[in-house]
Automatic annotation (TrEMBL):
Residues 33-52 bind DNA. GO terms for molecular function: DNA-binding transcription factor activity; transcription cis-regulatory region binding. This is DNA-binding transcriptional regulator, AcrR family. InterPro entries: Homeodomain-like_sf (IPR009057), HTH-type_TetR-like_transc_reg (IPR050109), HTH_TetR (IPR001647), Tet_transcr_reg_TetR-rel_C_sf (IPR036271). Keywords: DNA-binding. The keyword Hydrolase does not apply. Residues 10-70 form the HTH tetR-type domain.
């Protein structure tokens, strides 16, 4: 990461990443060219390549930025002092809020993996790293809710999230979110009272 003389991240790098983040999320990764990012960020091509040696590096940095935002948001829920089931409800609520937002264009990670299907590609690996972190975090929380093994419930939660993210682009977001939140609540109630 390029820093200025005061040790701060370069303003040009920040502008490039903010521009790429906005356009990549709204329009897709392959459809947006370097020339457009350079023009909208008001930098030269040389500046872009000094910070990001290739477009793939810029895409990975974009995904890492989205990951950090999600990690920060989940971190707030984790340190809220709420019981694990309420933290998971808060996480689900945050996901639903995103789906209902006017700027929602699906999951940045699911969108990226659709464009980069090769598991060896750095973009695909960045998606898998994020998903592994999310699954592990949710599973760790579910381990604090009920007695049954948490791994199946963790995978279930992630699949509910993935389905809601896709359905939120295809049908009424309010209905999608209502279904998603109800199913997360049912998953948690089942863990707390498997016989009920």
């Amino acid at each position: 990461m390029v820093r200025n003389a005061r040790g701060q991240v370069s303003e040009a790098r920040s502008r490039l990443l903010a521009t790429a983040t906005r356009i990549f999320y709204a329009e897709g990764l392959h459809s947006v060219g370097i020339d457009r990012i350079v023009a909208e960020a008001k930098v030269t091509r040389a500046t872009l390549y000094r910070h990001f040696p290739s477009k793939d590096d810029l895409v990975v940095a974009y995904l890492q930025g989205v990951h950090e935002m999600e990690r920060e948001g989940l971190g707030k829920a984790l340190t809220s002092g709420l019981p694990a089931d309420e933290v998971l409800r808060a996480v689900a609520g945050s996901i639903a809020d995103g789906i209902r937002s006017a700027q929602f264009r699906g999951c940045a990670f699911l969108n990226a993996v659709a464009e980069y299907p090769d598991p060896a590609h750095p973009v695909h690996r960045a998606v898998l790293d994020h998903r592994e972190w999310f699954l592990r975090t949710v599973t760790d929380l579910l381990a604090q809710v009920g007695e049954n093994p948490p791994e199946p419930a963790g995978r279930h939660f992630v699949m509910l999230r993935d389905g809601a993210m896709v359905a939120g682009c295809l049908s009424d977001p309010a209905e999608v979110c209502e279904t998603f939140l109800r199913e997360v609540d049912e998953l948690l109630r089942h863990r707390l009272d498997p016989a009920g």
